[in-house]
Specification:
Largest sheet: 5 strands, mixed
Strand order of the largest sheet: 2-1-5-3-4
Oligomer: single chain
Shape: globular
Helix content: under 10%
Length: 462
């Protein structure tokens, strides 16, 4: 029996299942068997003559296939809407006239911000380059207002946060925010702005910086205030930096409850507040810091968080990419379950993490070999997906290079567009940007030759 992976559109025709099994010597024979088992599928993939519909692609494992392609027991067959057809769904997924939807990517790089636009699932073009020559650590578009934010670390003049209604507008149309900046009594200065995250209240945004601190804005990002409860945490003198410094890089608001928040700090762990930042609890129970000698782990405060995300539909569920480990929390980030050991991953070391906003059981990671060798394992570029909360993971490789590909993908350089099917995008330090319009079932190189990519943020224009 071969396993057929169904796109979102076809799942209701097969009883809601995303995977079904069928036997046959060829893809076409197995598809006919599927039609007999699920009559509502008839005519959707194959036409009345048995030919493939013009806007459908088939892959057997990671190879492009046709109805006459042979299959064997254990093969995985992917049914994929081709980019030549129309795309519809949530998040502004389609346009009229059967044209593919458009996408905008904000790619922060070591040499400026690149605004990329083009068909969703197709090649992208550079619509604009801003802050030329300067590292843009992070860039994003606030989905509530459309405002764009760019964190720029000038090589001489330090970090600054800029705001614009259109990222492709001229450099002088970007407004510089008042902060984030530490109050004089702290004796600290901002070294780097790692992330900007929309909050739960109107006009509210959060920013994470190095040295590890949290700032809040209530006016759409134009001014910022230090969250003193976390800055004054009594254990702070014992916090240790990771390889990228002591940084707060992940911020997880609780939808609809602005007082509840979780943040990830390298390497001081997960911190959770339920009173808007006045008080904090460390959430590290269950995390195993294998880089610390076993006899010293019980007393260690060194918990090197690489990426922390909250699921939107089940806010108490969070996922975490650790410095050696992939974890899930079911109690809002206080305790953690290992979902990376013995679950199908070639390595549990890595940086980026993406969650499906509509499915709390679905997550994606891009493993690297280890902290001493931060490249993709075996020279194969693979995105791994779980659909069962981390109980198992499977490689998504169709269209990605599977030999001589020793790439590094950083923590902010993997994102989604919120569409249906989910669009996924990631950039590597090599400067190559990869895109999938179908939740990782197929991939293509959206653009090559950029400077090293630090962050990726996707947006489907409304």
């Amino acid at each position: 029996m071969a396993t057929f992976n169904l796109p979102t559109t076809l799942r209701p025709l097969a009883g809601g299942m995303d995977q079904v099994e069928a036997a046959g010597a060829t893809v076409g024979e197995a598809l006919r068997e599927l039609e007999r088992a699920h009559p509502r599928l008839a005519g959707w993939v194959l036409d009345e003559r048995g030919g493939l519909r013009p806007h459908v692609s088939l892959f057997v494992n990671d190879q492009l296939a046709a109805p006459e392609s042979p299959i064997a027991p254990g093969d995985e067959v992917h049914i994929v809407p081709a980019i030549s057809g129309g795309v519809g769904g949530r998040g502004g997924g389609g346009e009229g006239g059967g044209r593919p939807a458009k996408v905008e990517i904000l790619a922060g790089t070591r040499k400026g911000l690149f605004v990329l636009r083009g068909p969703r699932g197709g090649p992208l073009a550079v619509a604009a380059r801003r802050f030329a020559g300067q590292p843009v650590e992070y860039a994003m578009r606030d989905p509530r207002t459309g405002s764009c934010f760019a964190s720029v670390t000038h090589s001489h003049f330090g970090p600054h946060l800029f705001i614009a209604p259109d990222p492709a507008a001229a450099d002088d149309s970007w407004e510089q925010a008042a902060g984030p900046a530490f109050p004089a009594d702290t004796g600290a200065t901002v070294q780097r702005i790692w992330v900007v995250e929309p909050g739960s209240e109107e006009g509210e945004l959060w920013a994470g910086v190095a040295p590890a601190a949290l700032f809040r804005s209530g006016d759409g990002g134009r001014s910022w205030e230090l969250v003193r409860g976390l800055w004054d945490e009594p254990s702070r003198p014992d916090w240790q930096p990771g390889a990228g410094g002591l940084c707060l890089h992940s911020i997880c608001p609780w939808p609809g409850e602005p007082a509840r928040l979780a943040v990830g700090i390298s390497s001081a762990g997960v911190w959770v507040t339920e009173d808007g930042g006045k008080s904090w609890r460390r959430g590290t129970s269950g995390l195993v810091a294998r880089y610390v000698p076993e006899e010293a782990r019980a007393a260690s405060l060194s918990f090197c968080i690489h990426k922390l995300l909250r699921t939107q539909r089940e806010p108490a569920t969070l996922y975490l990419q650790f410095h050696g480990g992939v974890y899930r929390s079911d109690d809002a980030g206080l305790t953690w379950n290992d979902v990376g050991t013995g679950t199908g991953l070639p390595s549990d070391f890595g940086f980026p993490l993406v969650l499906d906003p509509q499915d709390p059981a679905r997550a994606f990671v891009i493993p690297l070999v280890a902290d001493a060798d931060r490249v993709t394992p075996e020279g194969r570029l693979r995105v791994y997906e779980t659909r069962d909360r981390g109980a198992s993971w499977r490689a998504l490789t169709a269209g990605l290079p599977q030999e001589n590909s020793y790439l590094t993908v950083l923590r902010q350089a993997f994102g989604h567009d919120g569409g249906d099917p989910l669009g996924l995008y990631f950039g590597a330090e090599s400067g190559d940007l990869y895109a999938s319009p179908d939740g990782g079932q197929t991939w293509s190189t959206a653009l090559a030759g950029l400077p090293p990519i630090l962050s990726v943020h996707a947006h489907i224009p409304g």
